[in-house]
Specification:
The complex is a heterodimer. By secondary structure, chain A is mostly helical. Chain A has 2 domains: 60 residues, no CATH class; 213 residues, MetI-like (MetI-like fold, Orthogonal Bundle). The longest helix of chain A is centred in the middle third of the chain and has 36 residues. Chain A is globular, with a radius of gyration of 24 Å. Chain B is of the alpha/beta class. Among the domains of chain B are: 260 residues, 3-Layer(aba) Sandwich (Rossmann fold), CATH 3.40.50; 80 residues, no CATH class. Helices cover 39% and strands 24% of the residues of chain B. Chain B contains 22 helices and 20 strands. In chain B, strand 9 and strand 10 form a beta hairpin. The longest helix of chain B is centred in the C-terminal third of the chain and has 18 residues. Classes of the chains: A mainly alpha, B alpha/beta.
Chain lengths: 318, 550
Amino acid sequence: MNDLVAIVVKRLGFGLVTLLAVSIIIFGAVELLPGDLAQAVLGQGATEETVRELRAQLGLDRSPPERYLAWLGGVFQGDFGQSLASKKDVASLIGPRFSNTLFLALYAAAIAVPLAMFLGIAAALYRNSWFDRATNVGTLTAISSPEFFVGYILILFLAIKNPWFPALSNVTPDMAFTERLNRLFLPAMTMVLVVTAHMMRMTRAAIINLLASPYIEMARLKGVPQYKVIVKHALPNAWAPIINVVALNLAYLITGVVLVEVVFVYPGIGQLLVDSVTKRDFPVVQACCLIFAATYILLNLAADVGAIVSNPRLRHRK
Amino acid sequence: MNDKKEVLLKIRDLRIEANTDVNRWDEIVHGVDITLHKGEVLGLIGESGAGKSTIGLAAMGFTRDGCRISGGTVEFDGMELSNMPKPQLRKLRGARIAYVAQSAAASFNPSHRIIDQHTESPLQHSLGTRLENEADAKELYRKLQLPNPDEIGFRYPHQVSGGQLQRAMTAMAMACRPDLIIFDEPTTALDVTTQIEVLAAIRNIVEQFDTAAIYITHDLAVVAQMADTIKVLLKGNEVEEADTQTMLDSPKDDYTKSLWSVREFKREQKPAPAASDTPVVSVKNIDASYDGQINILHDVSFDLHRGRTVAVVGESGSGKSTTARVITGLLPPSAGTIEFNGEPLPPRHTDRSKEQLRNVQMIYQMADTALNPKQTIGEIIGRPAEFYEGLSGSQLRRRVNELLDMIELEPDTYYRRLPSELSGGQKQRIGIARALAAKPEFIICDEVTSALDQLVAEGILRLLDRLQSELDLAYMFITHDLATVRSIADHVVVMQYGRVVEQGPKDEMFRPPHDPYTDLLLSSVPEMDPDWLTKLLESRGEDGLKAAGN
């Protein structure tokens, strides 16, 4: 177990270094965006003096490295700066939005992960049957359609033709939990359709990959029924690749929601990011990107730890 | 005596087909009959591809993916298995017919404790509670002389040694006290000293519970210890069947006779080189380590002379292959030097000159993985000739043809083929030709025959022997098989735990007195005498078996 702690600490260290590198890239990329915020805020009619004054006020007259270091120093103290557009504290602006995005992601994951596992196991169990083929075709169709398209199709059939669920996902902080689930049903389903195929196919492939192993043959020769062979003998050895794909898709649920949030007008972090880019609200853009990067790094770390924990050779040393 | 016993398994005209291509089925077992009585042990022997495992599995009503039983009957205790519905078959498998596989390490699920896998079958077949079955498992572990029988089952497979795992698998097969066990090469992957314990354990327990068994192996000496009757198979056909003693004394068929004679190939030991001769390679006081802390090799020294073969023997983990890595420069030693014709070689292969590199070549155990599957034979052999000799065009082609001639493969037929189109023995010949292409003075042969059938292995040994006398090569022969040592070596180095235990000319090494470890190794090689194991166990007693286990 001490080995595991050491690995986690080491990977966390690497994660921090990666995050630092990513922060430089984000800052650089934002720097490269054309146009000038002061000019944009003040409009065409502004005089050169007022523009210069506003730039000085926002600190835009300093050199990029200087501004990067100042920003980084703030981030380390939990201060993401002030939104240039709304003058609000970035952290307080992002906080509720991010928790909305997390809620949607968890909602979708709670449906998608068990569904994908179940379909993957069943497809491996009845491989090459009509069920296997239908699942493959269905999930592949879902993943091949762009998510805004899937979203609109769901709205068309489940909100307009049959008004079962609300088409808009506007939520308020004091909304009841069940009401929230109802409002978010369509965006969550859209996400489920988008991520299930990948996880399901990996589960199926990882299990089928193991079916030729001598220990699977041994289990069969011991008279173990087929479903137990799959669930008890193949699945525990297939965790590592499955966990990796699940982590990747969970990260996507958080960072890839931009389009879905826009379609359903859901006040999540993706919408905030899009709004901030159009407004050239650099501090908000940078903070959002940093949160996305951290999400990826943390989930990948979790996948690595999961893969280690699922390997008995690493869990139980000689 | 068999006439009095009830017939347990009756296989008649068994035919099995394999799916070789889309919609193409080729017959691989062509009508085999087996009659097995209760408590009787039948030995199935033959080379790879003879259909031994396929027939063994068919006795359980099982075929691997891509195979099917296409004809004949498999009758177990009055029930026909070949067309029995799966749920009914499952009730028999594990409960009344059990299976012991070749590699216990691969056949135990790495994710579950040994005892949980042991109790799975009886619990599945509703034979007693978990606790009862765990108690029974411990009892079986004790009977099979596993160390710490009360505790060993609670370990994971990777925490237990290969020989112990093989015995644990035999215990697992016994869990439901089946009427029939199929042993599929259960000791092939083990060292000779470990093999003894497993053989003794299997024989004891089969006798104790009066279990019938089909014992599948390619090793005649092993089958002689285990079986009452022996059946010889060749390419899916039965060659002959007789009781063990008759089969050993007077085999009728020519093929059986040729199998029996393989072990008789023996080359004369060449005279010792003159004391003034500089050895081609001299290994001097080598220490080596993989992590810089634990020494794997301790003070290893020996000389290799022109035209002579040094056999390095020892069990797995004794440091044979590590020594080869040090000589080739893949693993720089932490102390000591390697000399080539009296000159010290740089420790790292990256620091060696082209001339130094060409003179040390290697032939590997698994020809399958040592040849690039995407390259033709011509490219594989031509590459070193091009690299070391600077040959190209028609000169290169001529050299490759010459090399193919040397390894007795027809150049025009094989030049454009891919490794996948060759048999195991032919692939190993390509490995030899590739080593020769560099025109080396010294070749390391790392277990080059252990993955091959005996007849094919003998061909490879004869080829290597001929090439040695023609080209005056020095060989270092790494092997755990003492029969190979006996047939080809001039000088023998015995290694254990990274140390040279004993070394000397072959004739002296095979004559007592030996170092105790050499003695243990030599006496563990099975002989073609059905009473060999019994006598050996008697002479060793309890202590001897324990020594072999450690």
